[in-house]
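Entry 14. Ran structure prediction on the chain below.
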Amino acid sequence: MKINHKYHYAVLTLFTIVIFLTIQQKFNNKNTELTCSATLHKTAPLPDGLSAVLNASIYLFLGGKGQGSINYDGEIVHQQTHYRVKRLVAFTYSHRENATVYGVSWRGVDVANEDTLPPGALTQVVTPAISRAFYRFQLLDKKTLLILQDGVPDMVCIIE
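Output, structure tokens:
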């Protein structure tokens, strides 16, 4: 029995391409890990018409499997009262490969004993009132990341 080498080569090439595309698809759907830190000074409007000022060190972590967290360590000033903020906000996220928009669903908050922020409207400064949000990540340079929510800059952080 004579083997047609052209046919054999074509089938082998097609098989290799299918395997390569399958592997590429698997890796392209994998979320990438990112850590960045920032010193945040942010004035936030509150439902009562007043505002609060957040001064905190922020550490953002995006794990490789769609899990993330934001660690706040600082203070909120509201009506000349200083509240200590020390909490970890956990979330899940998703995005497409090479996309800059991340869908974020908030999971919960772990509050440290040193945190003196009272429950209520002030917690919205560090814990979003909505359960799902979309953020756009834009690299400004190799080490600087701009994070926008609804097209408005939310923070700039240094990639670690």
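DSSP finds one helix and eight strands in the chain. Will compare against last week's run tomorrow.
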